[in-house]
């Protein structure tokens, strides 16, 4: 028996019952890098070294959901907090893959315009800064995550400002209005010459909620450069209990037919669900 299609592109979400129980998403905002503590203060924050390989160590901050949101530590509070304070395995998988590609001469980030979706700690985006990207934008559902974790992490890992940076919070269905877009219909009036989309879009562990996969994919299509743009995504093959996963997302991409998807790495360490890294490009 043929399995029924799980996604429809006639609408982004039809889960009215579950949506009605969720609180309204926070408004889209830009968090200014210059508003937060100096680099010397950032270096005094609680942080842990993360060994990427023998030649690269990055740092991640330690922030709890109680410190930021006043609630008991949790990976997810639907509609209020989407897990950005936790360093997920897929983020490190993505960093290690990118750095290996750079070291082997198969990837250059110099001069690229980069967007990290669902950034949290922002380690993939931080790597692109260190490797010569000219513009890097970080997006997370919560402005609090950007203020308390992402920006301090960026400052902790940088010896000086190396790229044009932007930090944007909000729901995937709306936040494109504040980002760079590569289609006229998606550009805002004040977008001007700074549009044209991103050369590289990165995301890790963003595919856990099946109800949000369509809005995530539509965000990518609005912001990815039509010519030469690339998406690298990392996550678990399946997120048991919530219905999402890399395979659900890739199936949706393949049904749409606009992009080519290629799995480039699989991690089976026995400590967690099978994890994957995928590459997307326009056909």
Automatic annotation (TrEMBL):
The protein's enzyme class? transferase
**GO cellular component terms given for this protein:** cytoplasm; nucleus
Q: Which GO terms describe its molecular function?
A: protein-L-histidine N-tele-methyltransferase activity
Question: Does the keyword Methyltransferase belong to this entry?
Answer: yes
Pfam families reported for this sequence: Methyltransf_16
Q: Where is this region: Disordered?
A: 1-29
Tell me which EC number(s) this protein carries. 2.1.1.85
Q: Where in the cell is it found?
A: Cytoplasm; Nucleus
Q: Which SUPFAM superfamilies match?
A: S-adenosyl-L-methionine-dependent methyltransferases (SSF53335)
Is Cytoplasm a UniProt keyword of this protein?
yes
> What is any one GO biological process for this UniProt entry?
methylation
Q: Which UniProt keywords apply?
A: Cytoplasm, Methyltransferase, Nucleus, S-adenosyl-L-methionine, Transferase
Similarity section: Belongs to the methyltransferase superfamily. METTL18 family.
User: What is this protein called in UniProt?
Assistant: protein-histidine N-methyltransferase
Q: Which source organism does the UniProt entry give?
A: Rhynchospora breviuscula
